[in-house]
Amino acid sequence: MAVNPGDRAPDFELFSQEMLAGPPPRFKSYRLSAALGQGPVVLHFFPMPFTGVCEAQMCAVRDNLGSTYASRGVQVWGVTGHYPFPIQAWDREHRFGVPVLADYEHTVSEQYVGTYPDLLGLRKVTKRGVVAVSRDGVVRYVWITDDPLVAPGEEVVGEAVAKAQGT
Length: 167
Hints:
Elements: E1 13-20, E2 26-31, H1 32-36, E3 41-45, H2 52-63, H3 65-69, E4 75-80, H4 84-94, E5 100-102, H5 107-112, E6 115-119, E7 122-126, E8 128-133, E9 139-145, H6 154-165
Parallel strand pairs: 3-4, 4-5
Antiparallel strand pairs: 1-2, 3-8, 6-7, 8-9
């Protein structure tokens, strides 16, 4: 089941690819409700790291981070149904510049965009989607595709950012 515009965004906390110093070392976590205190958040959901369309989606986030998100006071996070270690390796290769969150239990994916029941023979894979949450914790925009080979275009991202800002 996916969220809809006007819904209260379910709060969550997930680990990112970033490490905190120890002892013991551990992955940094991000909580949506805490982030909303600093401004709106756009969530980019994607099926899996090290794949072409997912790489294109997250590289577009990286390449437009300043002009599309930061300049408008909007935070952006990636979310995928994998453990932090492969996400960390993928981020080292591409340096996305944003938290990429590990939803390895798929609970956040299920709440926000749903999962593909079977993708390349894998069950329960995070669907590709973009969700904008305004500072007041309300979902303002949702884009989800049933075709995992379709990435969100500039118009989708632009609308998500505008809606997250409340414009």
